[in-house]
Design a protein that fits this description.
By secondary structure, the chain is an alpha+beta fold. The protein contains 15 helices and 18 strands. The strands form five sheets. Strands 13, 14, 15, 16, 17 and 18 form a six-stranded antiparallel sheet that branches.
Length: 494
């Protein structure tokens, strides 16, 4: 069948390309890698058959345990079970061995055409070009690639040289089975990305898996195809304007609000670190979901509902139904506070927002607010910031000290630097209006003029360029130049 032939060809090409990436970017030589595999094979042949059978049984047990983690995530939303009084646990037990679950499992494991819900598959990766390694960890390797047609994506693969793979092979002496075991994290991530679709979750472009039956010798090879983002650089972010830092925190709170009531229930991010996030066109997106958990913590007393952090512990009430209600949500909020809010929110916040930011810091740092209240506080600041209501105390007369020239720009500028600025070569800040720009210019001893260029930030605020002087004016239909009246040029040159 032509379709099957194309799929096998694409899968074989993918296996070759993926191996090439690993060889070129992580493995020093093909010979060393081959020698390692040969060593494992020799160990397998030389090993005691009874011991190997025991190891194989232990590996199969681990494979089944990982499968049990994923199957409940594959089940569609079904309110009927809740109406019939079936709890999530009973529903899981009832369906874990059903034929439907095995079908869904095969669709994720082998990429069968029946469940091609993704935009891209193995065929999309033919003739791809690896650009660079974006990251590597215990389990996964993330590679930036260019696809045919000029499309750019990120691929997640099993890290053949990672700690998880190495430890598994050491324990079970089965490279092929270990690759399948380690790939479960990628399979779980595929499912979670399908179930947890949100603007602040990285977009799943598709996936590629080995064909049914392991034909082509690439069983266990799973590739997740994602939209390409830029790793979150906290040091760079700390040097960014407050508006951009606020955006990251706002995006994070919107994400946590969604996770608190997701289709899977309340989801906790167990590995909550800045490295789990990227930015796409300035928007924060969660890119690692394999450590996300929708399980509720069972309890008998309040002591069972303790959240432990390096410098703080919190105890939540144990509910009448024997679970720690709100534990996942509270865990996420405090991690957002200690990894993001602490560094990004207070520094250089506009004076009109200081008390509002302090309230957010106190309520999240002490876990006194739930995610709904936290989101409401952030959205309130955003509304004030976009509307300029926090600037009501600026006197209207402040702009009268400036001469305005519309449709003009400046040339021969003598620029000075300010921090933080949208431009490293000068002083470019966001303003709500010319009145706010005049207020800023008056506060800078070097400033004698500013230009509103018509460019806007993500909030819709204007970008203003502040200067100490300029030599002459030039036509620019999108700009307005404001010059202090004592410094205004006598005869503008056009």
């Amino acid at each position: 069948m032509p379709g099957m032939g194309n799929s096998l060809r694409a899968a074989a090409l993918l296996a070759f390309v993926v191996l090439s990436i690993l060889v070129s970017l992580l493995i020093s030589s093909v010979q060393q890698f081959g020698a390692r595999i040969s060593h494992f094979s020799n160990a397998t042949v030389a090993g005691d058959e009874e011991e190997l059978a025991s190891l194989r049984g232990a590996l199969i047990y681990q494979l089944n345990e990982r499968r049990k983690e994923i199957i409940p995530l594959l089940l569609p939303d079904d309110d009927d079970d809740d109406e019939n009084g079936l709890s999530g646990e009973s529903r899981r037990d009832k369906t874990i061995d059903s034929t439907l679950d095995y079908s869904l499992w095969n669709e994720i494991s082998y990429g069968s055409r029946k469940a091609q819900l993704d935009e891209m598959d193995c065929d999309s990766l033919v003739d791809m070009q690896a650009v660079e390694v974006l990251g590597s960890g215990y389990t996964k390797l993330v590679v930036k690639v260019n696809l045919a047609g000029g499309r750019h994506v990120a691929l997640k693969l099993v890290n053949e040289k990672g700690i998880d793979m190495g430890k598994c092979v050491e324990d079970f002496k089965d490279p092929r089975g270990c690759r399948e075991l380690v790939a479960f994290k990628l399979k779980k991530e595929i499912v979670l990305l399908q179930r947890l679709k949100h603007p602040n979750v990285i977009k799943l472009k598709g996936h590629c898996a080995g064909d049914a039956g392991g034909r082509g010798g690439h069983e266990g090879r799973v590739t997740v195809i994602l939209e390409q983002g830029n790793p979150l650089q906290m040091i760079q972010l700390l040097q960014s304007p407050w508006e951009d830092r606020f955006r990251v925190c706002l995006d994070l709170v919107r994400l946590l609000h969604f996770l608190s009531q997701s289709p899977l229930g309340s989801v906790a991010l167990l590995d909550f670190q800045p490295r789990q996030f990227v930015t796409v066109s300035g928007q924060l997106k969660l890119t690692d979901l394999d450590d996300a958990s929708a399980e509720e913590t069972s309890c008998q007393t309040d002591a069972d509902c303790t959240l432990q952090f390096p410098h703080r512990n919190f105890t939540l009430p144990c509910s009448a139904r024997g679970v720690c209600d709100g534990l996942n949500e509270k865990r996420n909020i405090y991690n957002a506070y200690r990894y993001f809010f602490t560094y990004l929110l207070p520094h250089q916040a506009p004076p009109g927002f200081t008390h509002l930011v302090d309230h957010i810091m106190n309520s999240t740092g002490e876990l006194k607010a739930n995610i709904n209240q936290t989101l409401e506080a952030f959205e309130h600041i955003l509304l004030l910031y976009k509307s300029g209501l926090h600037l009501d105390n600026l006197p209207p007369s402040i702009i009268r000290d400036y001469t305005v020239m519309r449709g003009m720009g400046t040339s021969g500028n003598a620029e000075y630097r300010c921090w933080p600025s949208y431009s490293q070569q000068g002083c470019v800040l966001s303003v709500h209006s010319a009145k706010e720009a005049a207020h800023i210019c008056n506060s800078h001893s070097q400033c004698n003029s500013f230009t509103l260029t018509g460019q806007k930030t993500w909030t819709g605020r204007l970008l203003a360029s502040f200067r100490s002087s300029f030599s002459h004016l030039v036509p620019d239909g999108m700009s307005e130049v404001y010059v202090k009246k004592t410094k205004a040029p006598e005869t503008p040159t056009v």
